[in-house]
Automatic annotation (TrEMBL):
Record organism: Rosa chinensis
Record flagged with keyword Oxidoreductase: yes
Domain of life: Eukaryota
Protein name: Glucose-6-phosphate 1-dehydrogenase
Residue ranges of coiled coil: none
Catalysed reaction, written as an equation: D-glucose 6-phosphate + NADP(+) = 6-phospho-D-glucono-1,5-lactone + NADPH + H(+)
Amino acid sequence: GPTANVLDAELVETPANKGFSPFLETEKDKSTLSIVVVGASGDLARKKIFPALFALFYDDHLPQNFTIYGYARSVMTDMELRNVISRTLTCRIDKRENCEEKMNQFLKRCFYHSGQYSSEEHFLELDSKLREKEAGRRSNRLFYLAIPPDVFVDATRCAKHRASSENGWTRVIIEKPFGRDTESSRELTRTLKQYLTEDQIFRIDHQLGEELVENLLALRFSNLVFEPLWSRNYIRSVQLIFSEDFGVEGRGRYFENYGIIRDIMQNHLLQILSLFAMDTPVSLDAEDIRNEKVKVLRSIKPVELKDVIVGQYKRHCEGNVCYPAYTDDPTVSNDSLTPTFAAATMFINNSRWDGVPIMLVAGKALQSKRAEIRVQFRHVPGNLYNRNSGTDLDKATNELVLRIQPEEAIYLKVNNKVPGLGMRLDRGDLNLLYKSRYPREFPDAYERLLLDAMKGERRSFIRSDELEAAWAVFTPLLKELEEKKVVPELYSYGSSGPVGVHYLAAEHNVRLG
Ligand code: NDP
């Protein structure tokens, strides 16, 4: 019956998913979408962007008239580009019989133009090729800058001056890093805004496209049971953990210049934290959500050195197998002080979160790969069951875990009586394991975000004032670490990180997850 339908989460239509197809019927035939992947020869383009575009095509999310252009300096023919990208396309969602055919249809719409990122002339050549495909229709153009940050501005200038749409919209997706501190980020924003309006800039943070992160607001604001507990009154501590079980693997040159705080914490973890901690937005509109995110980011006190542990992974051998140290990377100097691990305790200076320690933990070459939010609740006042049982009061508190990766899940640790004649409690999980509840494979984060950019949905992209607020949290710390040449604590490749993190956690009564 209708009541049952309404209760089924999958069927509830929110303003955000209403009219899911980005293109109105009437516009279908008239407009055309040109997607230009700048840096098409690179790693990100091959591994993420082209496969995501194919998945969208495969699921009928691209408009009827679309063209994809790869652009980079490497010399390649259209056929060569198609060969390269065809190797990474998969038909993973609802594998249908016509996959092969769909791939061929998709590849036929992919073209390549070779040019320099700073050459307006080369972008003009691209423009005339795009016009040919657009055949006089109203054209919308989406540029994806999958290039190193030092050529962002050049490519934006050229795209704006020589290849933007004359009768439709032009949007530019930009990848991190958005600067390396407050000043450089501000400068990047200032220069980009010489060519584009804020509305045309889509700063991507792929964590915001993860299913569980998207779900954070739904979980908080569509369930009565969580929101009343979501404050200092009931929450004792929060952890945001992002760990990888591999090292820099060939990306040493990039990493050496940024380090883990800039690579993971200042962007991915702070973004997740802002969705976790923000107040109720006026609506689900992008600007309402981003307004709340900025507010909470601006309420975070800049992180202090005393509340931080930095680490760097060292060589570790098991029998004959050895895993390299960070400094074994040929592009990294032997005396590098770049942190590959960091843990930071921070506080949000507002009435909701005052005094609640929030611990951000990020690291490479650790024992596991995972991204999680762990919320530890206070103990039950006057808990009857802790008095004589010898149970550790601290360990018996509730904990809510939101596991973003791998194996998406939301689980709540609760105390439960062990069945039997005695009165003994143990801890069990109320567990919403995604793979059993939602067995269908989910779209990759890049698919969701690309589709959002095509729709003009800005909710999951970072506005410039958010970026500014996020840098303000970490810039003083980053300066101090560098000025004082703080030596990172070494930890073995594949371990649980530097020992210091346990002291930091204990100081604020955080039970490490
Ligand atoms: P790549 O190093 O693979 O570079 C992409 C392309 O840019 C290359 O194929 C090359 O194309 C061109 N390029 C490389 N170095 C230079 C240079 N010094 N000057 C001018 N052009 C150059 O980068 P990725 O694909 O890994 O990443 C692209 C962007 O996305 C970067 O900003 C990165 O920080 C960001 N990013 C990447 C992620 C990933 O998983 N790889 C994840 C998150 C963000 P050609 O020589 O043909 O012009």
